[in-house]
Write a structure and sequence with these properties.
The structure is a single chain. With about 230 residues, this protein is mostly helical. It has two domains: about 50 residues, no CATH class; about 160 residues, no CATH class. The protein is built from eight helices and no strands. Helix 1 crosses helix 8, helix 5 packs antiparallel against helix 6 and helix 6 packs antiparallel against helix 7.
Length: about 230
């Protein structure tokens, strides 16, 4: 049973479909997941009982992983569901953002700003994904199997790279906020062409997926890895 006193991260883990409702009301369930639903509703001027009713009525998410799944399974889910999706959609968005800035930038200079913001976001996100795939995730797999001492890494504690990933998650969230701000919440001009519309649609798809991706790592994968490292066996 979901309670209004539950934190956003707890609700998102037990009822992944709730993330759609959180996204609708711009509730930060990943980096700000420690906030209770009641406090988040107060901050947004919403009635918590009405939001709870929306969560109960929301359709289940097809892309989810059980909170008690083995860590290797959580890693596999993040890789196949989020990393692959992020790379593919960023490649699409890059083409659209360059095209829209070139065609509409004179009349809508914010599109030039958006293009540059997205280029920075993409470069940082690509590096972030590689760090997880080549360093942190393999270490977590070894940690789960009690073989972390065999890892060819330059750190002795999983907390170090996790803290770096959390910091980069914060930066990614801020970049997404800036892109939404510069576009006035992705409000289309009246004469927006199909490419303009598709760009905004894809950016919102990316935002939704990145928030869910970061939530799974911040509130499920990373805390469980830290707990395992502190209490092996």
């Amino acid at each position: 049973m979901i309670l209004s006193s539950d934190t956003l991260s707890k609700i998102a883990l037990s009822a992944p479909h709730a993330t759609r409702v959180f996204a609708k009301y711009r509730m930060d369930f990943c980096c700000g997941g420690g906030t209770s639903l009641s406090d988040a509703c107060i901050g947004k001027g919403l009635n918590s009982e009405s939001v709870l009713a929306e969560i109960q009525a929301a359709a289940p998410l097809r892309r989810s992983v059980e909170a008690d799944a083995p860590l290797g399974e959580v890693v596999d889910h993040v890789l196949s569901t989020h990393h692959e999706f992020t790379r593919n959609i960023m490649a699409e968005i890059e083409k659209f953002s360059v095209r829209v800035a070139a065609v509409h930038g004179a009349q809508h200079p914010e599109m030039i700003v958006l293009r540059d913001l997205f280029a920075d976001f993409k470069a940082e996100m690509e590096l972030h994904l590689l760090k997880e795939e080549r360093v942190l995730f393999p270490y977590i797999r070894l940690l789960e199997n009690g073989a972390e001492k065999d890892a060819p890494v330059c750190f002795s504690d999983v907390g170090g790279p996790i803290r770096m990933m959390l910091f980069e998650h914060e930066n990614a969230g801020e970049d997404l906020r800036k892109m939404r701000e510069v576009t006035s919440d992705y409000t289309l001009p009246q004469a927006a062409c199909n490419t303009y519309r598709l760009l905004f649609h894809k950016l919102q798809e990316l935002e939704e997926d990145v928030h869910l991706h970061m939530h799974l790592e911040n509130n499920l994968l990373f805390p469980r890895a830290m707990e395992l490292a502190a209490n092996p066996g």
